[in-house]
From TrEMBL:
InterPro entries: Bulb-type_lectin_dom (IPR001480), Bulb-type_lectin_dom_sf (IPR036426), Pan_app (IPR003609), S_locus_glycoprot_dom (IPR000858), SLSG/EP1 (IPR035446)
Protein name: S-locus-specific glycoprotein S13-like
Alphabetical list of Pfam families matching this protein: B_lectin, PAN_2, S_locus_glycop
Lineage: Eukaryota, Viridiplantae, Streptophyta, Embryophyta, Tracheophyta
Source species of the chain: Raphanus sativus (Radish)
Domain Bulb-type lectin: 32-155
SMART domains, per the entry: B_lectin (SM00108), PAN_AP (SM00473)
């Protein structure tokens, strides 16, 4: 081949490549994997979401020979993964194939061993061809080719450590699946770490809990119509909307962006839950907030009937009408034993002390009635001698709905701004008769 021929061939190839890249019929498929195609590590092919925010492909995060299939941001300078398929079962070398087999997405290793699968039980029932698609919001879905509605499977149902806009965190009552976040083991190891952010639905009122292994680290507090009283989410940002839904189908939190050029994600790492944002033209993720923020966020640092207040540094305080249970420890700054009533309750003659800007107590011992207002809530608490406090369930429009606690109240904190009113039952004659202020 002479120089002329070589450059001719090169030009021809270039035109060919350009045609493939920009051909309208072909470019619509860069986000789609059909049932006859596959994605291999060696081909370096990736699926790109329409709009170009996300891409799906293989990656090797460390020097070790461990390969993963994942979704990452394309336009973000610091490589950031939003989802990993085979986080706990890496490919052991650079031979790996993603394809559709018997209506399942499967990831195969060197000897065609299945490393990961969508595991749909109806997988053998072939109704019509299925295909996989990376959607603009970063959701990797599998669906019937000609059907526009409904997914057979979606990555949004299997979160890794990151909640993306439009993704739901929490319980799906139909599939009985609780979707939660689990940290990476370390910054170059996506395998499941010990820290989780998970909706607790076992008893009382649902709330999200940050867990380190089996240890509760921080509670979100229940949703109050605007936010979670224990999460420092910034309210009223003009580019982000929060949504909490509790109905017969689901108990779930999600958020979405009203300005699509701003990215935001909720990510759990080994120590904290973080809200990261990417606001152009900055070329970095910034941390909008992280929790736990201080000692006061740590579950039960103060014990029953005590609240934590950071002024000037975190300390435990007894609610008015209560005294430290263990004076000795209390003096040395250990408030974990909490406080006890200085005057016993007189069931029929009690009243309530209002504490403002509070993170509501642990809702495991709480009951909710969304139909009644705050006056009815007070009556209801008063009429049950075991009821120790109450609060409004939804702070909007002056407060609707009623949460009441029976037994000890624990894990309470006071803020300078934010939080909500908490009403604590006291013996009226002894504690409230003179002054009802904190
Ligand atoms: C894996 O499967 C492909 C396609 O079915 C086949 O061509 C290949 O020989 C298989 N490889 C091994 C190691 O079995
Ligand atoms: C699929 O099923 C296999 C065998 O039951 C299991 O080991 C694997 O974890 C499942 N994969 C997923 C992604 O759930
Ligand atoms: C909140 O989410 C639910 C379902 O999860 C949806 O029906 C509803 O429209 C959403 N509300 C807003 C304001 O986005
Ligand atoms: C978790 O993220 C926060 C916020 O970016 C950071 O300060 C902290 O060092 C991270 N922790 C770990 C263990 O990576
Ligand atoms: C969206 O955010 C970007 C970056 O802050 C800003 O430049 C742009 O004006 C915003 N667009 C709208 C419609 O608010
Ligand atoms: C409770 O309070 C009422 C009204 O103040 C009083 O009449 C009653 O004796 C008290 N009962 C007890 C057990 O202290
Ligand atoms: C109050 O608590 C006691 C002890 O736990 C229990 O025996 C009693 O039934 C409770 N009363 C009501 C009205 O729930």
């Amino acid at each position: 081949m002479n120089t002329y021929q070589r450059s001719y061939t090169f030009s021809f190839l270039l035109v060919f490549v350009v045609l493939i890249l920009f051909h309208p019929a072909l470019s619509t498929h860069v986000n789609t994997l059909s049932s006859s195609e596959s994605l291999t590590i060696s081909s370096k092919r990736v699926l790109i979401s329409p709009g170009g925010v996300f891409e799906l492909g293989f990656f090797k995060p460390s020097g070790r020979s461990r390969w993963y299939l994942g979704i990452r941001y394309r336009k973000v300078s610091k490589t950031t993964y939003a989802w990993v398929a085979n986080r706990d079962n890496p490919l052991s070398n650079s031979i790996g194939t993603l394809k559709i087999s018997s209506n399942n997405l499967v990831l195969l290793g060197q000897s065609n061993n299945t490393v990961w699968s969508t595991n749909l039980t109806s997988g053998n029932y072939v109704r019509s061809p299925v295909e996989a698609e990376l959607l603009p919001n970063g959701n990797f879905v599998m669906r019937y080719k000609e059907s526009s509605s409904g997914f057979l499977w979606q990555s949004f149902d299997f979160p890794t450590d990151t909640l993306l806009p439009e993704m739901k965190l929490g319980y799906d009552l139909k599939t009985r699946r609780n979707r939660f976040l689990t940290s990476w083991r370390s910054s170059d190891d996506p395998s499941s770490g010990d820290t989780m952010y998970k909706l607790n639905i076992r008893r009382g009122l649902p709330e999200f809990i940050l867990m380190h292994g089996r240890l509760k680290s921080q509670r979100s507090g229940p949703w109050n119509g605007i936010g979670f009283s224990g999460i420092p989410e910034v309210q009223g940002l003009n580019y982000m909307v929060h949504n909490y839904t509790e109905n017969s189908e689901e108990i779930a939190y999600s958020f979405h962006m009203t300005n699509q050029s701003i990215y935001s994600r909720l990510t759990v790492n080994a120590s904290t839950l973080n809200r990261f944002t990417w606001i152009p033209p900055s070329w970095a993720w910034s941390t909008l907030w992280a929790t736990p923020t201080d000692k006061c966020d740590i579950v039960e640092i103060c014990g029953p009937y005590a609240y934590c207040y950071r002024s000037p540094y975190p300390t435990c305080n007894c609610i008015k009408g209560f005294v430290p249970k263990n004076q000795g420890n209390w003096k040395f700054g250990d408030g974990s034993d909490g406080c006890v009533r200085s005057m016993r309750l007189n069931c029929s003659g009690d009243g309530f002390l209002r504490l403002n800007n509070m993170k509501l107590p642990d809702t495991v011992t709480a009951t909710v009635d969304r139909r009644i207002d705050v006056e009815k809530c007070e009556e209801r608490c008063l009429s049950d001698c075991n009821c120790t406090s109450f609060a409004t369930a939804d702070v909007r429009a002056g407060g609707v709905g009623c949460i009441f606690w029976t037994g000890e109240i624990v894990d309470i904190r006071k803020y300078d701004v934010g939080g909500q009113d908490l009403y604590v039952r006291l013996n009226y004659a002894a504690d409230l008769g003179s002054s009802i202020l904190m």
